Model the fold of this input.
Amino acid sequence: MARKGKVTVIGAGFYGSTTALRLAEYDIFETVVLTDIVEGKPEGLALDINQSRSIEGFESKVIGQATAPDGKGYEATANSDVVVITAGLPRKPGMSRMDLIGVNAGIVRGVAENVAKHSPNAVIIVVSNPLDEMTALAQIATGFPHNRVMGQAGMLDTARFTHFVSEKLNVPISSVKTLTLGSHGETMVPVPSRCTVDGKPLNSFLSEQEVGDLVDRTRNGGAEVVALLKTGSAYYAPSAAAARMAKAVIQDSGEVMPVCAWVDGQYSISGVYLGVEAAIGREGVKKVVETALEPGELAELKSAAEAVRAKQADVKDL
Ligand code: APR
Done:
């Protein structure tokens, strides 16, 4: 299999290390770089992943590199094709993603500036929370065109919704299709009208109340995991989503996925990072894809846009 390109994962915590492992196991990149500010952590994890290569049968090489806020160590990330930013604090039980904004803004800004210096042509995938705001901040800090900076949230929220439907109806996960748009937070917009089981509308299997309960559980999907873990937040499903986005970029697949993308005119919404469906490829977001929404869903998407717009306007000063 032809391997090509370089992907860097910034932050070797639970989310970052799992993402690096998934990317290495795909065996599609020449090199996977994992960095962290904690000396020894990325190096140790990279060594550990590399030692699994003969068992799992992949050739991609993983490089672990400690970095400093002044940019020391970022040479190892130079000329990455894709960079996944996971650096930042996760939530504790009872916290909202927005409670992380002050501290994570400082981290994401510094990281994004260093990434831009060393990989001026990269596509950036942000996963640090609060997601919509950190994605907007990464675009400002890099000065990259909007299409080359996107966030991971919609694939994860959609995957959670799909899991809950499959569990509720006791049907194979592959028979369920769902969709969530909007923000990765309070104003997440699950889209029941786009949900099907074996191609049939979800509302032919479940009552309005039952769908509403699954929608609520999806909106709180991250918090449910945080409450159970007590320390740290989810990373298996999140890393699966982020890794798929990086794969779509390097393979220039054009796959349409729900992501946090810059919306400029679609759904009559402009100038904001928001969860929408988009075709993903070498240039990042190739195209935001509009889907038919019911009037109530469209209204929810528009209010999500206004809620995140207000917050995103503040990030440039953080
Ligand atoms: N550069 C590189 N790494 C950094 C930096 C920085 N400037 N600042 C912090 N880190 C590292 C930490 O040292 C730690 O190893 O980021 C890592 C974060 O890891 P975890 O605490 O395990 O958090 P994780 O679960 O991986 O979540 C990371 O993703 O889902 C979001 O809300 C979550 O914002 C959080 C992020």
In short: The mean pLDDT is 96. Residues 10-16, 35-38, 41, 67, 69, 86-91, 100, 104, 107, 110-111, 127-129, 232-233, 235, 238 surround adenosine-5-diphosphoribose (CB under 6 Å).
